[in-house]
Amino acid sequence: MDQNHLKSLVKKFLVEHNCLKTYDHCISVGEYAYELGKNYLDEPDKARIAGYLHDISAIYPDDQRIAVAKKMGIDLYKEEIELPMIIHQKISKEIAFNEFNVTDPVILSAIECHTTLKEDYSDLDLVVFIADKIKWDQQGEPPYIEGLMIALDHSLEAAAFYYIDYLLNHGIQVLHPWLNEAYVKLKYDLGYN
Ligand SMILES: [Fe+2]
Ligand SMILES: [Fe+2]
């Protein structure tokens, strides 16, 4: 599917559900992931597709996410029941598969772990994860941006580690098992042990 066609489908889907802000965020993450991905990936287009779709589940508010996930047959951790916001990454993956016919497992993986990362991350997972943190969905500059960009000059892994380490030191609400596993793996891979 060509990128402009996907973009218009994402727009239609999100605007119909009154999520225009999410549309703007998804497009900016997709474009940034594509640019960043050019340095690391054989197929940076996959980063753009994952970015465009990563928050497509914004159509469901937090208080519906447990029920929606159960209906979709998604397994939930207790940490996700505690903080249903985190479930949106898994629901986005389901919507990408069911409504947008995305079947490529590497794209689906990047959508599914864009908030928490996971232990066996790929470069594509890292690119989308980092793009989402740089082009965040809130006002102004992210408080971690300066350190994150310096770390990104070293590597994708260093940037991902910097961000997770920042979260862990700034009152993270719930420690998702995938985030914890990614942190341990990054630490090991970077030789910080
Ligand atoms: Fe997200
Ligand atoms: Fe996002």
Tell me briefly what this model is.
This protein starts with a helix and ends with a helix. By secondary structure, it is mainly α. It has helices spanning 3-16, 20-37, 45-53, 65-71, 78-82, 88-100, 105-112, 123-134, 145-154, 156-168, 177-189.
Topology:
Blueprint: H1 3-16, H2 20-37, H3 45-53, H4 65-71, H5 78-82, H6 88-100, H7 105-112, H8 123-134, H9 145-154, H10 156-168, H11 177-189
Helix pairs in contact: 1-2, 1-3, 2-3, 2-8, 3-7, 3-8, 6-7, 7-8, 8-10, 9-10, 10-11
This protein binds fe (ii) ion (2 copies).
Catalytic activity: P(1),P(4)-bis(5'-adenosyl) tetraphosphate + H2O = 2 ADP + 2 H(+)
Domain HD: 22-134
EC number: 3.6.1.41
Describe the sheet with the most strands: none
Q: Give me the count of strands.
A: 0
Q: Which structural class best describes the helix and strand composition?
A: mainly alpha
Task: Spell out the CATH superfamily of the domain at 3-136.
Answer: Hypothetical protein af1432
CATH architecture name of the domain at 3-136: Orthogonal Bundle
- CATH fold-level label of the domain at 3-136: Hypothetical protein af1432
* Net shape: globular
Rounded to an integer, what's the Rg over CA atoms?
16 Å
How much helix is in the residues? 55-70%
